[in-house]
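REQUEST FORM: STRUCTURE PREDICTION
Request ID: SP-0412
Submitted by: Lab K.M.
Chain count: 1
Length (residues): 401
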Amino acid sequence: MRDKILIFISSALRASAVSFSGVIIAIYLSKIGIGVFPIGLIISAGLLGAALATLAVIYFSSKFSRKTSLVLLAFLMGLGGVAFAFSKSLFVLLLASFAGMMNGMGRDRGASTTIEQAILPQTASDLNRTKTFAWYNVSMDSGHALGSLLGILPVFFRLHLGMDGPASYRWSWLLYSLICFLSGLLLFFLSEKIEPEKKTPLLKLSKKSSLVVKKISALSALDSLGGGFLTTALISFWFFKRFGADERLLGLIFFFARVANIFSHLAAAWLAKRIGLLNTMVFTHLPSSVFLMTIPFMPTLTIAIILFILRESLVEMDVPTRQSYIVAVVEPGERIHAAGITNLTRGVSWGVASFVAGSISSISLALPLIAGPSLKILYDLLLYREFRQIRPPEELKGEHR
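STATUS: Completed
RESULT:
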């Protein structure tokens, strides 16, 4: 129980830092004179760095302890924030974004979550596994909500502490780093119980699990390709350019979006017990994409915000259910590899799509908001077709109803 609580708190802190950076990064880079295309490049570098870190987690899972890996990842994030605080060089920012796994998505889906997703099933029964993942995501989205509010800080520093523009962002990035370091320090107190009972050979999956993981990974790549067009950084930038929303309003928008996410995770666990994991994933995720596609056509900021919050109340319901589904349909010793491979394909796709989004945004800022949901809808339809006959253990036993 102690390990579970430490993971929940640490992940909440890390998520708050990620969300904070997602709100301010594109606006900050724009204000120091970096163009739309290089902004997309910097965001892509961070996401690709996270993907490489996930690959390292998979590759070295039999060589390094889970605790060591989690602590190292947290400290790398913190160092990346320090570099952002003190440098305006495009080269340094690209390097810091890559090495520090700077996440313009605004959602914590990096290498650390791969390790945590492998740990959590050891703390719960099959029947309670999805509920555990739901609360794990509640903790992270609580952090995401707090981080969104922290996005107000640059304005607060300027208006109430008399800082100039550069100083307000410098202290914001230093706060980001401090949160990352605190997240890492908490992980020093994890026990040996989080480690696997036995080491498994590198990337060794059974034939059955390998087929499932390959299919899920391919579809996850498609989903994340769509998601990479929809980073918090780029959505913030769209609201900023389209309606003139400043950091204060953006912080509030994303705060309420994350609150909607929090309640949706608990609703997902409740719904999955009644209609199954896969049905919950598809039947909530698809309409969320429809909501998002309509936003660029809205005439007022108020309507756009309402549709965005409605989208956020549904879009994350597939996250705890997907995480639970993946670790349920493979053997216990294969979980870190299964979670890692699917997260890796997601990270690479996010990075590639963010790069493309930065390019097409220079044509129209609305294009990513149409292209992203279109790909996600295709993902939902293909996912349902391929996996509707593959059920997790608790559904085979009839325990989900």
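NOTES: DSSP finds 17 helices and no strands in the chain.
Reviewed by: T.R.
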